[in-house]
Specification:
By secondary structure, this protein is α/β, with parallel strands linked by helices. It folds into 2 domains: 163 residues, P-loop containing nucleotide triphosphate hydrolases (Rossmann fold, 3-Layer(aba) Sandwich), CATH 3.40.50.300; 110 residues. 55% of the residues lie in helices and 8% in strands. It has a 5-stranded parallel β-sheet, sandwiched between helices. The N and C termini lie far apart (53 Å).
């Protein structure tokens, strides 16, 4: 996939790669859905490839990717059968230690090995601490590429040992073109709503289209405008999200809520209302960071989202009264 927001990032990476000494740790930072995983895989191949050494077109023995494992044995079987499967909430310390044991051997095809952690901001605390030891004393020829949607969640000591590559968001025109190129078949109204809510993230735009988020966007907008004194809106929101919503749908709902709150803040003419919207946006960001980590009941999570959204109207009425 050709990512138009990667031009400057590639320029910086290749300038470093051609230098005398390539830094051993990199953080690919930016919101989810900007192509950081695609960049990491291609960059890792450039890193480990050597002139005159044939490189495999499939899985590479000198590129190790750590990501969320299947949730349990049942989900692991689904993965092995090529089916959709649920994953664990965190990257565990055992995965880091297994990777470190592999670092005791030499790379297979050349002198370099790349470790991709995706997303590194989903490592459990003990995994982060274990990784830090490898970043402090990296084995010769080993390079770490950490994908981070929320780099502030990484340990400061990890951030200080890595170079940062920041990925810019996409323009609405770029989003529209990418949706056309990669199978977006929704109507013009749904596309426009998804692009506006995605705030520059292709991944978010596609999730909004796949999840049919139009009705949820209407509910979120109503909660922001009218509040929910009778709790009816929060019940509708919970039903619209669904009692068995998977992680992808929950993530899409939280992204949509953040985007619509941010849009309202930009358009608000009231400093007091804008301040309340900014506060609610911050709380939604915190909730989005906690949701993958804690075992939230979907109904309670929907109520929490609805309460935050409806508080904007309630707070504005109280302030104006």
């Amino acid at each position: 996939m050709d990512w138009p927001n990667h031009v400057d990032v590639w320029r910086e990476w290749r300038r470093a790669l051609s230098g005398a000494r390539m830094h051993h740790g990199w953080i690919l930072a930016g919101k989810s859905g900007l192509g950081k995983r695609d960049f990491a895989m291609t960059a890792a191949r450039e890193l480990v490839g050597e002139e005159g050494v044939a490189q495999p077109t499939g899985a590479h023995p000198d590129i190790l990717t750590l990501t969320h494992l299947p949730k349990d044995d049942k989900e692991e079987k689904k993965r092995d059968e090529g089916k959709a499967y649920q994953v664990k909430r965190n990257i565990a310390v055992g995965q880091i230690r297994d990777m470190q044991r592999r670092l005791n051997t030499r790379p297979t095809l050349g002198a370099r090995r790349a470790i991709i952690i995706d997303p590194a901001d989903d490592m459990e605390p003990s995994a982060s601490n274990a990784l830090l030891k490898s970043l402090e004393e990296p084995p010769q020829g080993t390079f770490f590429i950490l994908i981070a949607h929320r780099p502030s969640r990484l340990l400061p000591t990890i951030r200080s040992r890595c170079r940062l590559l920041r990925f810019p968001t996409l323009s609405n025109e770029d989003l529209s073109r990418l949706i056309d190129q990669h199978g977006g078949t929704a109507g013009a109204q749904a596309r426009d709503a998804a692009i506006d809510a995605a705030e520059g993230s292709f991944g978010a735009a596609m999730r909004f289209l796949e999840q049919d988020m139009g009705p949820l966007a209407d509910l979120i907008g109503r909660l922001l405008r009218e509040g929910d004194a009778a709790f009816q809106g929060r019940g509708e929101l919970s039903r619209a999200i669904g009692p068995r919503a998977d992680r992808g749908r929950i993530q899409a709902v939280l992204e949509l809520a953040q985007a619509l709150v941010a849009e309202n803040a930009r358009n608000s003419s009231s400093p007091m209302e804008r301040g309340r919207l900014i506060e609610v946006h911050s709380q939604l960001v915190t909730l989005a960071g906690q949701a993958p980590t804690y075992n939230f009941d979907n109904g309670l999570l929907a109520m929490e989202i609805g309460t935050l959204l409806s508080s904007v109207s309630a707070g504005s009425e109280h302030a104006n009264g």
